[in-house]
Amino acid sequence: MPRIRDIAQVCKSKNAGPFHVTIDVLFEDPALYARVKATGVLNAALFARLYGVAEEDVQFSPYDAASAFKATLPRLVPAGDVGDTDVYGAQQHAPLLEVDIPLNDPAG
Amino acid sequence: MTEVRMLSTSGILGYGFSEEALRIGMEAAPHVIGADGGSTDPGPHYLGSGTGFCARLSVKRDLRLMLLAAMAARIPCIIGTAGGAGGEPHLQDTAALVREIAREEGLTFRMALIHAEQDAATLKAAVAAGRTKALAKLPPLDDATIDRAVRVVGMMGPEPIIRALDAGAQVILCGRSSDPAQWAAVAIRAGLPPAPSWYAGKMLECGAEPAVPKEPDCLLVTVRDDHVVCEPPNPVRRCTPLSVSNFALHENASPIRHVEPGGILDTADISIDAVTDRAVRVGGMRWTSSPTYTVKLEGVELNGHRTMTVCGTRDPVLIGQIDSYLAAHRDRVAARAAAIGVRAGSWRLAVRTYGRDGVMADWEPERDAGSPHELGFVLEVVAADQETANTVLAVARTSLLHADFPGRLCKEGNMAFPFSPSDIPLGPHYRFSIFHTMAVDDPCAPFPIEYETV
Predict the structure, then answer these.
(1) Long-range CB pairs of A30-37, under 8 A, 24+ apart, other chains included
(2) Candidates A10, A50, A91; nearest CB to B246
(3) What's the whole-model pTM score?
(4) Each residue of B341-380: pLDDT tens digit?
(5) Where would a tag sit more exposed on chain B, N or C end, judged by fewer CB atoms within 10 A?
C-alpha cells in the first residue's frame, strides 16, 4: 500500500499566523488526487489522531482546484513562546508522510 | 483591455535575487516593482525589539538595485511591511537606507512613509466602542492587554497605498501591510477588479516562490480582467501548475477563503493552467466585499528575559534513561534555584531534546522509536530579568553536566558543551499578545502618510 511520501509531490507544513500551523499535501496528477480523495483516508479525524489535537480544532479542506489537501491546527505553543520548537512551523509534516493510502489499483 | 504587469523581486527584501532576473523582468516593462519586507513569521522578537531579521547590507543591496531599476523605468517601487515587522523603528530604518542609497547614487524622488503603529488611545477607543474582535481563540482585547503591549501594528490594505500613489509618491515604504496589499493597490488603482488584483498579490508576495527551482528571486505577474499570469523572468526557473498550486496554499488557514482587509478572496473554483512550459494562468477567483472594513492588529508584550545553552550526550547509559534523568534534572534545578534564593514560579525552564522530540515536541509520534547514539539538548530559561535567567540557566547547565544517574560510568561529566562561554543571554523575550481585528470606517485613518522629497 503506498504511503503519502510515495505518491505526493508536496507534503509540507508552515505557520498560518503565529497561532496555527497548516499542513499541505499536493498531487501533480488530478486523477491521482481524486483517487486519494475517494479513499477518504485524509480527513480531520486523521489529523486529530496524528497530532493529538481535538477533531473540532482541525480545519480540514480538500482543494480540488490545486489537487491538494490542507489541514490547519492550533500550534502546541504560539510561535516563539517559551518552549516552542519550530518558530516557522516548517517541520511538522513528517507524521503525514507515513500514512498509508489504500488505492485500489496496486500499480498506483 | 487593461493589463498591469508587476515585478516582485524577492520573497523578503534582503533575501536576494539575481541581477539577471531583474534585468529581464524590467524588459517586460512592469508598472511597478516591489518586495515584501516581512511578516510575523520570524516570531515575536522582531516586532518587540524593533529590529529587522535580515542583515542591513543584504537589504541595502536589494533596495539599491530596485531603486535604480525603478528610477530608470520611471515606475513606483513599493516595499510592504518595511523592516520585517512594519513597526515605526522598522519603517524608519528602511527609510534611512533609502536616503543613504539615494545619496550614494545621486537619485531624487518623492517618497511616502505609511505608518502602521497603533497607539494605545486609539486601540482603547476601539475596544470601548466594541470594534475589536479576537482571532485564534485569544481572549477579547482589553485595556490591560493594550497597556502591556510593547508595540502594536495594524495591517493596512491597499487603500493607503493607493492614496500615496495618487499623491505622486514614487517610492512607498509601508509599515505593516497585508502581504498582497502592495500589489492589489496598483492593479485596483489601474481599474482592474479586486479578485485578480488580490490574487496577483497572493502570487507576488514571496517573489519567485511560485516557481521552481524554488529560491529567492523575481516573479512577474500580469493581471487582466479575469485572470493573472505568473512567469519568472529568470530563465532557469519555471512556473508550473504544481508550483503555482503549491504556493496557492502558502501560509493560509483555508485554501478557499482568504480573509483580507475589506473583503474575502474566494479561490474555490479557480483554474490553474499552463500557458507555456514556464508560465501559468490562474482564473476564476472571486471577491466579496465585507460590509465592515477590518484591520488586523498584531502586538507583542515583554515576557521576561531569556538565556540558553546547547549541549549533547554520547553516553548510551544516560540515553537509555533520559526521561527519568530529565525529570530528576527539573527537580534538582528547582531545588537549587530555591536554595540560591530565586523565587519559585519566577522562572520557566524548557528543555528540547534533539534526536528524540526536539523538532515536534508533544506531536512527535516516534519519540521512543529506537535508541539514538547521541542526543542534543537546547536549554532555555525565561525569567523576569536577565540576571535571574542567567542564574537559573547556569544551575540547569551545571546540573545537567554533573548529576549522578544509575549505572553512571562517565563520572567526569554527562554532556559535551561545544562553546565557551556555554550560556548565551538572549535578552528580552517577547510573546504575541494581540492578534485581533479592529473595525474602521476609513481604511486610511489608522495609517497616516508622510511625504518627503529625497
Answers:
(1) A30/A64, A30/A67, A32/A7, A32/A67, A32/A108, A33/A64, A33/A67, A33/A68, A35/A103, A35/A104, A35/A105, A35/A108, A36/A7, A36/A69, A36/A101, A36/A103, A37/A62, A37/A69
(2) A10
(3) 0.94
(4) 999 999 999 999 999 999 999 999 998 888 899 999 999 9
(5) N
